[in-house]
Specification:
The complex is a heterodimer of chains A (440) and B (221). Chain A is of the alpha/beta class and 440 residues long. Chain A has a domain of 96 residues: ANL, C-terminal domain (GMP Synthetase, Chain A, domain 3, 2-Layer Sandwich). Chain A is built from 14 helices and 21 strands. In chain A, strands 1, 4, 5, 6, 7, 8, 9, 10, 11, 12, 13 and 14 form a twelve-stranded mixed beta sheet that branches. In chain A, strands 20-19-17-21 form a four-stranded mixed beta sheet. The mean pLDDT of chain A is 93. Chain B has a single domain, classed as ANL, N-terminal domain (Rossmann fold, 3-Layer(aba) Sandwich), CATH 3.40.50. In chain B, 32% of the residues lie in helices and 33% in strands. Chain B has seven helices and 13 strands. Chain B is globular and about 45 Å long. The chains are: A alpha/beta (440), B alpha/beta (221).
């Protein structure tokens, strides 16, 4: 790997790897290594495969993989966890007491827990992740400062990654209470990269800067790129951030086997196919959908030997394309559309949170804070709980009508709106997102 | 304090954290060597708190406390244990409760006022949450007192400038590493001086904490 800071890619030999090489490496890692490893050590994988009557020796090609390998999903993991009193849901392939694992299996992190109990995520190793490629793409370079604005429960991987490109992490909490320090450290240390920004944080930054009279264009003038993650961004929030002079790089989860992040072309999030095999399948079936067609993301790790997921149905609705990106990278891209379990059918019309996001957000008083009420998949009425910071002209009745009008214009359905003070929704954090769908 | 040394050789800088003095915040660059050195101290603390090999410590903290926390994270490995993490915020109190239930840590360190507020929001009794835990260590004396009121005898962890000081449950004095740090007092305020080489040295750094030093290595508040 070149140490030239002017090079276009961090790892050009991987990021521009020919498709045939990507596929060959996938086959070697998956068929020759991951499958036998996981079957032998993972209780959940073995139980699932045995129930399907499949053995690793039956899977010698990718067509075997597609035809025979059974799926797992979050319910299967939770079920195994409950039946076996195993916090790792039968996925852990390493024995913490194994002396050869000392210093390798080091920690247990956890998922955000937005929709339930946080799921423990065993962590092995230390050092930079593949996000070095993304941080380089943002424009951060050796010797730079890099704003690390996150939580503790994701572990040290991000700041190890920042150091992995030769930059220095500047630690800030992803919390409303630390916005003043975020602004101060941005001005004092002039970071070039920022990981991560979120919708609630944008709202808090805007309010803090207004209260303190801070010019955000000036405060943020050193940044070359900012990773936005946690949940989708609406057009209003995006416009506001772009007014501050920030270039956003959207990041999305890759079915719990990693993350995918936009490049400078901003045309989908690159999924690193040397680390994960991603399928896009019929959301109601098992057949693959075509390139660029809406499907459910099904993920298989190629590198995680601690708690490997094989054919994990993520519930995420996506469009996946493997057409080469204009940026020159050869790895595929994913556009996230929403979650299958979030879909509501109202009078025969499918509605996802993303479909009403822009409409709600277009009403300034809401800051885009809303939840869809989903007692069941098919409902008679589209019900939205919307948070407000101020009542606006005409008070709450007028605010309710403006939101109803905006949503009806957007999706063709007039919703029932339940207005609540925004803190009611923000308290349902974690701070970087709120549950966008709730049963009641 | 000067950061010049840090900027001359950026790759040596592990990260820019902070120290909190009263309501003030001072940015604080530390080196990889600083973290490694403090890890030895943190390993001693964790053993004294009862953490053993093949066990787990749950560290409740903020990312902004990284320069104080990273030594504990690495020290878990030195002890042969695992660690897990939760934010020390009101929002994230549910995670502390959930991970205690799921992972059954031996030691929980860093429970602060905000986490206890979060337990109140969740209508969770700290004594019930921490019942399976051998050793609970509060972050700050206010949280320690609240835990005591709730029936949890907890130790306390303080961040005095860049220095970690810890007292186990029932102990009347906090411990710090007297070979690497000197603590003295002026007008009742504790001052810390780094004796070992540090990227950002402390020279009688005012901590904002009141206390006294009965003997080197021990602090009475």
């Amino acid at each position: 790997m070149s140490s030239d800071p002017s090079r276009r890619y961090f790892s050009p030999e991987i990021e521009q790897m020919p498709r045939a090489s990507i596929d060959r490496q996938r086959d070697e890692k998956l068929l020759g290594d991951l499958i036998p490893w996981a079957y032998k050590r993972s209780g959940l994988i073995r139980e699932t495969w045995d129930a399907a009557g499949v053995r690793p020796a039956d899977v010698t090609s990718m067509s075997d993989f597609h035809e025979k390998v059974p799926f797992i999903d979050k319910d299967a993991i939770r079920s195994y966890r409950d039946r076996h009193d195993d916090p790792y849901g039968g996925l852990l392939c390493l024995d913490p007491a194994d002396p050869t694992m000392k210093g390798i299996f080091s920690a247990i992190f956890s998922t955000s827990g937005t929709t339930g109990d946080p799921t423990p995520a065993p962590f092995a190793g230390r050092g930079p992740s593949m996000l070095v490629r993304e941080f380089w793409e943002l424009g951060a370079r050796p010797g730079d400062h890099f704003l690390h604005c996150l939580f503790t429960f994701r572990g040290p991987s991000i700041h190890d990654t920042i150091r992995g490109i030769g930059a220095t992490p500047v630690f800030v909490d992803h919390q409303p209470g630390d916005i003043e320090q975020l602004l101060r450290f941005s001005r004092d240390f002039r970071p070039t990269g920022w990981y991560t920004l979120s919708g609630p944080l944008i709202m808090m930054i805007e309010e803090t800067a207004t209260r303190l009279g801070i010019d955000l264009q000036d405060a943020f003038s050193s940044y070359r790129g900012v990773v936005f993650a946690g949940e989708p961004i609406g057009p209003r929030a995006r416009a506001r951030v772009e007014e501050w002079g920030l270039e956003l790089f959207i990041q999305t989860s890759l079915g719990d086997v990693g993350a995918a992040t936009e490049c400078r072309e901003h045309d989908g999030c690159h999924m690193w196919e040397d680390t994960a095999y991603i399928e896009s399948l019929d959301p109601e079936g098992t057949t693959a959908v075509g390139d660029g067609i809406r499907g459910e993301l099904v993920s298989t790790t190629l590198i995680d030997k601690v708690a490997p997921l094989l054919r994990y149905r993520s519930d995420d609705l996506v469009r996946v394309t493997r057409e080469e990106c204009a940026c020159g990278r050869t790895h595929g891209r994913v556009h996230t559309l929403g979650r299958k379990g979030d879909e509501i059918i109202v009078e025969g019309t499918s509605v996802l949170p993303g479909d009403v996001w822009g409409a709600v957000e277009s009403i300034d008083e809401t800051n885009g804070l809303f939840q869809m009420i989903r007692p069941s998949r098919e409902v008679d009425t589209l019900r939205l709980r919307v948070g407000y910071a101020t009542e606006g002209p005409g008070g709450l009745p007028a605010l309710r009508v403006r939101i109803e009008d905006a949503v009806e214009e957007s999706v063709g359905i007039r919703p029932d709106i339940d207005l609540v003070e925004r803190e009611v929704l923000l308290r349902q954090g974690p701070p970087h997102k709120i549950p966008r769908v709730t049963k009641a | 304090m000067t950061f010049a040394k840090a900027y001359e050789d950026p790759p040596r800088v592990w990260g820019v954290g902070r120290v909190v003095v009263g309501d003030g915040i001072v940015p604080w660059p530390v080196s990889e060597a600083d973290i490694d050195d403090e890890t030895e101290v943190a390993a001693t603390f964790l053993r004294e708190l009862g953490l053993g090999a093949d066990e787990l410590v749950l560290i409740v903290s903020y990312l902004s406390q990284a320069i104080h926390v990273a030594p504990f994270e690495r020290a878990a490995g030195v002890v042969g244990a695992l660690y897990s993490s939760a934010d020390a915020s009101r929002f994230d109190a549910f995670r502390t409760a959930s991970l205690v239930r799921q992972l059954k840590p031996t030691v929980v360190i860093g429970v602060d006022d905000a986490v206890l507020d979060g337990f109140d929001d969740l209508d969770r009794d700290p004594a019930e949450v921490f019942a399976p835990v051998r050793t609970v260590v509060a972050s700050g004396t206010a949280a320690q007192a609240r835990l005591a009121t709730a029936g949890v005898t907890a130790g306390v962890w303080l961040r005095l400038g860049a220095l970690n000081a810890v007292a186990g449950p029932g102990a009347t004095e906090l411990r710090y590493d007297a070979a690497r740090w000197q603590v003295d007092e002026a007008n009742g305020e504790l001052l810390v001086t780094s004796l070992a080489e540090r990227l950002t040295p402390s020279d009688r750094f005012r901590t904002g904490f009141e206390g006294r030093v009965p003997t080197p290595g021990r602090i009475a508040l």
